[in-house]
Amino acid sequence: MRLLDRIMLTLVMFVMVGFSAFAIILALGLDFPLQFLGQALHDVNNRMALGVSAAIILLVSLRFVYYGFVRPRPEKRIRHETEFGSITVAHRAIDNLVTRTIKRVAGVREVKTRIDNTEAGLAVALKVVVSPDASIPDISREIQQTTSSYIKTVIGTDVASVRVYVSDITDDVKSGRVR
User: Fold this and answer.
1) Alpha helices by DSSP H, 28-159
2) 111 with 178: CB under 8 angstroms?
3) Residues 102-149: pLDDT tens digits?
4) Is the N or the C terminus of the chain less surrounded, counting Cβ atoms within 10 Å?
């Protein structure tokens, strides 16, 4: 749970504690909370503040109800069955391995990967930025061969396809992202 969600949940819980205390006091036969509330609600500004507060609390509560029913997306992964049991590898781990491997290919400046499972094996899509002195057909072929053999050797699964998209040709190296 994120920090903002925790803060909102804490505020909603404080409101619920206050409402519960108010209801308990009324259940005990004490009517001073109702008198105080009646006097406070005669002022238009107090009614408006109460309405806005109630609307905010309703929206926050609906958010928590929604997230209570929505299931998080399962992490993409591949699974191998061996004679000793199963091996599961997350796509994120494969992304990291492929990214590190492809960055070692001469002429590759940046790389971004996407992995998908297919019937024939993994489908790897690579978005790369290459240097101007690189031959695009040669570097693309090397990227495809390196990726396919590396995944087969390290992960132990077949690669159905390796698609290379050259998004830019530049000497500049941007940190982190491919445009």
Assistant:
1) 32-40, 44-69, 91-103, 136-154
2) yes
3) 999 988 999 999 998 888 888 999 999 999 988 999 999 999 999 999
4) N
Give the range of the structural domain holding residue 83, as residue numbers without chain letter. Answer: 77-169
- Residues 81, 163 within the same domain: yes
Inter-axis angle of helices 32-40 and 3-27, nearest 10? 120
Q: Give the whole-angstrom CA distance, residue 51 versus residue 17.
A: 19
Residues 6+ apart with CB under 8 A from 126: 98, 102, 111, 112, 113, 114, 143, 147, 162, 163, 164, 165
Q: Which helix (H) or strand (E) holds 159?
A: strand 159-169
Q: Distance (Å, rounded) from C-alpha 92 to C-alpha 40?
A: 56
pLDDT one-digit tens code per residue, 37-58: 788 888 888 888 888 988 988 8
The pTM of the whole model exceeds 0.70? no
> Which of 60-69, 74-83, 159-168 ranks highest by mean pLDDT?
159-168
In a domain, 178, yes or no: no
Alpha carbon distance 112, 107 (integer Å): 15
DSSP bridge pairs for 11: none
